[in-house]
Amino acid sequence: MSDELWIQHLRTNQLDVVSLGRGAFEEARVEDYVVSGLVDFDDISYDKHADLLYDLATQTVQHFKAYLSEDDSRKVLRCYQRDIARFIHAQMQAHYWEDVAGYEVKISKGYTELKQSAYTYSVQEAPANYRVEPADKSNMAKYLFGGFAKCLYPLQKFDSDSERKLAVILERDALKWFKPARGQFQIYYRNGADDFEYQPDFVAETAATIYMLEPKKRTELTDPIVIAKKEAAVKWCTNASDHAASYVGKPWRYLLIPHDEIVENMTLDGLAVRFGGRS
Q1: Which helix (H) or strand (E) holds 9?
Q2: CB-CB neighbours of 96 under 10 Å
Q3: For 48-71, what is each residue's pLDDT tens digit?
Q4: CATH 3.40.1350 for the 128-275 domain, yes or no
Q5: Per-residue b/e over 115-151, b at no fewer than 16 CB within 10 Å?
Q6: 0.70 exceeded by the pTM?
Q7: What is the largest CA-CA distance in the chain?
Q8: What does residue 259 show for φ and ψ, rounded to 5 degrees?
Q9: CA angle, 159 as apex, 269 and 256 as ends, to 5°?
Q10: What is the residue extent of each domain of the chain?
Q11: Which of 217, 137, 155, 150 lies closest to 177 in space, CA to CA?
Q12: What is the DSSP string of 201-248?
């Protein structure tokens, strides 16, 4: 980093040189540039995290001093303080965790109304029959399916042909079913330091059980985000089942199903036996 900024005036050809002086913002310790940049983030408290912040700042300074002089390291940390702090903060978020003794579950209301679903489709094309395999399975998003008797919505879209096959099974075996719209269930999973909303692909009710069903590619079953969603949904089903038991309601179960295991001649009970852990 240079301490000088050259300014060339196009009209007069005058050349001015502005030097970066050591003003009031000069930190006493090189590490303080990193720490002062990090404490600007809302989720970092100097009082609670001072030891960690200076540990990270020391590692950062040592990194720059490995190939820069003391003075040049100071220049880099001073001029790129915000970018360096943002980079370190991103790594802190990726390694964030909480030790939780437990949560108290409170039921604020017994039910929620169905959220409205919006679909984009061609008005020239009538809804496809959900029982018929479409010609272009690689582009399922373009099809809008209808003809349901037990679905809570008259029309549905599917992300894959496996979802369509699952709908065939649910139409045959469930009392009622639907694909939840955004915001229907208050289920949240953690990814790093952030919480994200999760909606299962299907919800179906039988005479004995209410199921949340999630068809997934087999290669995605071990994905950390898929696992985090499953754990959050299983916990939600456990709480819902405990509440339902207080008024002799139906238990909830979560099923994570490999997409290539779904065939139309299967039963919902069969899927539950094969892929439904206790919840």
Answers
A1: none
A2: 12
A3: 888 999 999 999 999 999 999 988
A4: yes
A5: eeeeeeeeeeeebbebeeebeeeeebeebbbeebebb
A6: no
A7: 88
A8: -65, -30
A9: 35
A10: 4-94, 128-275
A11: 150
A12: SEEEE-SS-EEEEEEE-GGGTT-HHHHHHHHHHHHHHHHHHHHHHTTT
